[in-house]
Amino acid sequence: MMAGQLTIAKALNDALRKSLENDPKTVLMGEDIGKLGGVFRITDGLQKDFGDSRVIDTPLAESGIMGTAIGLALRGYRPVVEIQFDGFVYPAFDQIVTQLAKMHARALGHVKLPITVRIPYGGGIGAVEHHSESHEAYFAHTAGLRVVTPSGAHDAHWMLRQAIASDDPVIFLEPKRRYWDKGEVGDAADLGLHDARIVRPGTDATLIAYGPMVKVCLEAAAAAEEDGRRLEVVDMRSLSPVDFATLEESVKRTGRAVVVHEAPVFLGMGAELAARLTERCFYHLEAPVLRVGGYYAPYPPSRVEEAFLPDLDRVLDAVDRALAY
Asked: Are strands 146-148 and 238-240 parallel, antiparallel or unpaired?
């Protein structure tokens, strides 16, 4: 792959291609990923170049796909599973949380399951029911799973390659509303898979986000600067484990924090982050750690989803409340 400007979708495609080239035991599995190239064309051209024994079109049976991947991993393969849409993962949830996440511990460390589960997640594409879920907290809550999500093309490429190379199971969440965003892709990974990244430095408050909300927070920081406020934006990148060291260092400097995610606020990732940051940064905080997220309701019809999703105004409103203390 040549470094340069790529969409997130193309960056992921190149990462899968490199992984297939570098390891003959790497196999891709999923619904319509072969001849069609996937609903979002992330696997476009890979079956043609690597054959249908390595890029496998599966039946519409997520539990079966996941169970087969676990069996292949036990036999020495490195499966990369695509769940076509976020809301389709639930039939496979039993396999993921009772088998995939626990096999390593159950075998006292003797068995490894190097499986990457790719899941497009989040809203913003005008989809029908069960196509716009943000269920990251389920997986981050489950010990034994690594959970990561990129926000740009460079991280999409290199984090996916790092995930596939990992000997632990990785839930790789892809922000589908950002698939067509372009960004520079470098010729090497510049961070570990579970390191957070400060994407915009600031002094007045820290915005903590991941996946699709990083772009929203960057837009909010740019708008706030017009009012003389310098907001720091931190891209978590990893939801389990969490790079608390980077988050704490930022919050201790700015004294205020706002956590932003698409998932409902109630028991979302922001709840854990707010609790941990309050415990560890209490004497540095000038205001409570605030949260911005989706409403505690089923994801709405596409016609009104923009009112459900956190936007620049809701982020800036939280910043105003934090700064008012």
From this structure: antiparallel
CATH of domain 4-185: 3.40.50.970
Active site residues: 131
The full 3-state SS of 31-65, as one line of letters, equals CCCCCCCCCCCCCCCHHHHHCCCCEEECCCCHHHH
The type of residue at 270 is G
Please report the pLDDT score of residue 114 as a whole number.
Answer: 97
Residue 1: pLDDT band (50, 70, 90) is: very low
Q: What residue segments make up the domains of the chain, in order of their start?
A: 4-185, 197-324
Same CATH topology for 4-185 and 197-324: the answer is: yes
Residues 144, 129, 217: CA angle, nearest 5 degrees: 65
* CATH fold of 197-324: Rossmann fold (3.40.50)
Tell me the mean pLDDT in the region 1-10: 81
Stated pTM of the model: 0.96
Summary mean pLDDT of the chain:
96
Phi, psi (degrees; rounded to nearest 5) at 30: 165, 170
pLDDT greater than 60 at residue 277? yes
Count the residues in the chain: 325
Confidence of residue 4 (pLDDT cuts 50, 70, 90): confident
Mean pLDDT of all residues in 84-101: 96
Please state whether 70 falls in left (phi above 0), alpha (psi between -120 and 50) or beta.
alpha
The answer, yes or no, to whether residue 202 has pLDDT greater than 70, is yes
